[in-house]
Design goal:
The chain is an alpha+beta fold. The chain has 4 helices and 6 strands, in the order E-H-H-E-E-H-H-E-E-E. Residues about 35-45 and about 185-205 have low confidence and may be disordered.
C-alpha cells in the first residue's frame, strides 16, 4: 500500500507589531496674566490722601497746640488703631477753637476745645485695600477708644485729653486733589464760643 503523505504542520499566524503610541505634543506654558493697572481698584500712580478731624477737650488749648510733642503723639496714637497705618504717613494740624477761658466756681480753668485735623498720605505702593481699611477704621472709631490711644501716646508729656467730643467722616482723594475735611460737630460751638486760631498751630509729623 502507498505511504500516506505527512500532514503539513499548520502555519503559525504572524504576530501583529504593536501600534506605537501617538507622540504627545508638549503642553504650552500658560500665558501669565498681565499685572492689573493702577486705578480706582488697585491704587493710583500718585497715592491717596485721607483726611478727617476730631474735636477734643483739654485744659489749655493754646499750650496743647503749640507743643510739637502733641502732634507726634496724635499721629502715633491714631496709627495704633490699624495695622495698615504707618505713623510716617500721618501729619496732624492742631487748632484751638475756644476763645473764652471758662472758670469753675472755685477758679479752676475748665476744658477748652481743640480740633485735630489728620492728613494721611498713603503712598502709591499701597493697595486700594489699605486705603479702604484705613477709611473703615476712621468711620468706625469710637470717641472713648480714640481718647484712650491718644492719651497713651501723650503719657510722656504733660498733656491729657479730657474728652473726645466728635470725629468727622473721612474724605478720600488722590494726591492731585485733596480737599480739607469739614470740621466735626462740636456741642460747645453753640455756647457762645468763637473760633480762635493759635499763632502757631500747625505741626507736622516728620515722615
Amino acid at each position: 500500500a502507498p505511504t500516506p503523505a505527512p500532514t503539513p504542520a499548520p502555519t503559525p499566524e504572524a504576530t501583529p507589531a504593536p501600534t506605537p503610541a501617538p507622540s504627545l505634543a508638549p503642553t504650552p506654558a500658560p500665558t501669565p496674566a498681565p499685572s492689573p493697572p493702577r486705578g480706582p481698584e488697585n491704587g493710583t500712580e500718585t497715592g491717596m490722601v485721607i483726611k478727617f478731624s476730631t474735636t477734643i477737650k483739654v485744659n489749655d488749648a493754646a499750650e496743647f497746640c503749640e507743643s510739637e510733642a502733641v502732634s507726634d503723639a496724635a499721629a502715633q496714637g491714631f496709627a495704633g488703631l490699624s495695622e495698615d497705618l504707618d505713623p510716617s504717613w500721618i501729619s496732624v494740624e492742631c487748632e484751638a477753637i475756644s476763645s473764652l477761658r471758662r472758670l469753675s466756681q472755685d477758679g479752676r480753668r475748665l476744658e477748652e476745645a481743640v480740633q485735630l485735623s489728620y492728613i494721611i498720605s498713603v503712598p502709591p505702593s499701597a493697595s486700594i485695600v489699605v486705603v479702604q481699611n484705613i477709611e473703615a477704621v476712621i468711620s468706625g472709631a469710637k470717641a472713648e477708644e480714640l481718647k484712650t490711644v491718644l492719651n497713651d501716646a501723650l503719657s510722656a508729656t504733660e498733656f491729657k485729653i479730657m474728652e473726645v467730643t466728635s470725629i468727622s467722616d473721612p474724605v478720600v482723594m488722590t494726591n492731585a486733589e485733596s480737599p480739607t475735611p469739614a470740621p466735626p460737630t462740636d456741642d460747645d460751638k453753640g455756647n457762645g464760643e468763637q473760633k480762635a486760631t493759635t499763632d502757631s498751630h500747625t505741626k507736622e509729623h516728620a515722615a
